[in-house]
């Protein structure tokens, strides 16, 4: 074992990744390690990283190599990940010494068993990385398509459209097409950790669960407090609590609910900018109703809503994987 080099990140840029205590921080022209384990001993103390190929390790990282014919580096890496080395940190300025790591006990089986175990978990890591890359790529694609397929307030046609649609989009005031109401207060002692119906309040996830519901499925919600301005689409029946806004279409308005959700989600950053408060942020419904939206004909709304909904399902699939 040995500490990396230098207290600062190398200034000369190159092709070799620079590792600190928490992964890659830059790239440089030279390398001081190849295919090895790096453990953060200053900064993100106890963080264990496997660095592939040639790379440079700063002083914030400890370079670890297994003793030949006793333990394989990749097997040792997985053992150290399980040991949760961050628990060994000590002092006001967290620090993990080489002796702390050397005194950590691990089980060492035969080299053949180590190799099989390492290959198994490496394949598993590769599968996880594949789905993470897919997830991030799809998120980027979705973000780009939302901008191009949903025109802003100053345009009446998007830059990308489905074939067969050519009509101009009509601009409407949000207050002309929707009503906003608040949910009903539900005290925490009445909620469950698991249950039939999620309780939607002012956060980005359910506050808890309840055995009753007060809203139907396929409803748009906006957080009134807490994560003020967060726009969500509830696919199942739920209980809307007191910090939850529920979006209803006004009578005779023929608008696709899923399309409207993506329009509002695309404007979420604007809604969140309207939030106010010193400790707990809040957004009032009047500031939401002042927004404008552009509407195509209903068939195009339906197609856009369905398209982005399917894209979200694909993103969720890779996120879960």
Automatic annotation (TrEMBL):
UniProtKB keywords: DNA-binding, Restriction system
UniProt key word DNA-binding: yes
Domain Type I restriction modification DNA specificity, chain residue ranges per copy: 11-140, 167-320
GO annotation, biological process: DNA restriction-modification system
An example Gene Ontology molecular-function term: DNA binding
Keyword DNA-binding belongs to the record: yes
Pfam families: Methylase_S
Family, as annotated: Belongs to the type-I restriction system S methylase family.
Protein name: Restriction modification enzyme subunit S2B
Organism from which the protein derives: Mycoplasmopsis citelli
Lineage: Bacteria, Bacillati, Mycoplasmatota, Mycoplasmoidales, Metamycoplasmataceae
